[in-house]
Fold this sequence. Notes:
The chain is an all-alpha fold. Helices cover 75% and strands 0% of the residues. The chain has helices spanning 11-18, 36-61, 65-93, 98-116, 118-122, 127-150, 155-175, 183-201, 211-240, 247-269, 275-279, 283-314, 322-345, 352-367, 374-392.
Amino acid sequence: MTEQPSQPSRPASRIQVWYRPMRSRDSGEHHRVATPLELLFDLCFVVAVGQAAASLHHALAEGHAAHGVSSFAMVFFAIWWGWLNFSWFASAFDTDDVPYRLATLVQIAGGLTVAAGVDRAFDGDFRAIVAGYVLMRLSLVAQWLRAARSAPETRPAALRFAAGIAFCQVLWVLRLFLPASLASVTFVAVVLCELAVPVIAERRAKTTWHPHHIAERYGLFTLIVLGETVLSATNAIKEGTAEPGHLGSLISLAAAGLVLVFSMWWLYFDRPGHLRLVRRRTMFTAMSWGYGHYFVFASAAAVGAGLEVAVAYDTGTLHLGGVAAAVPTTLPVAVFLLSVWLLHIGPTNECRPIAIGFPVTAVLVLAASFTPAPIHVAAVLTAALVALTVVVTHGAPRT
């Protein structure tokens, strides 16, 4: 029996190396984890987070708290919403082929353009951020149209996403030409339109996002934002040590800040983030969990700015009262605790000490602003909450 000569590979086989049809991913796929491309996307986006936190710090240090907080809330929404749009799409349609990677590169370029425009946005000039959004949205709309073409089962949702995102982007561009007096009102109006797009798009045909993958993506971004907080505080303390006579107080403040961040990390990751998404996979659960993380991310980023303010106060370079210098740290920590409580724990949690402990600690942390050492007291309180969770959940099964 003679051996048959091997057949040359077909061109279609070679095409599959760089192009794959964009089919819906299996929402029950085992061992679904974040890809290196998603991690690169996060690292590039955290540049914008750092810029927003730095601008918030400058506004607070100059005594413009109301303007700084409102500007930070708007700018951080732009950063977070761009990240969220990419992450949920990738969970359902990531093909990791050449067109997908190039489209992601365009979105990264848009995210970096947003980062470059953060300082101007705090002065009311959103042109650079809108330009970055145009880049991100052109790529994202193209991705949704590609999904509509290749995945018939989710075509209605994909087409609604593409149309809704394009419509909202037109609104952002038109907003640039409206009077500055309408800036806040128009911002809220367009934000509501943005938040409504996923609700409308998935009303009938749902996308196949992966709960474990989404929870991991949110957890990784939380880690990166906490890391940016540590970096901001470290840089502030490094600058503070250049002034003689403050080394002891800065070391003490650094230790308290580290305990704060470590406690925030512990409390967020103490319960697996996917549990709520798996147990109650409804649109309301997905939207409330996904949207609610805006407060987790924003508060975690704001803690870094708050610690910088505390460093400036301890070194005598900040002309604010003790309470005014403490609130930029204690308030975001309290918001973080309440957000984690609502998203991961819940007021009806069967473990009553934890269900009650989170909101009580949040109130006490905010009250710590009126103590002589607010950052240290807040650190002790959050560490006590960590100890409480360890004690009451000792031996409990972790699923």
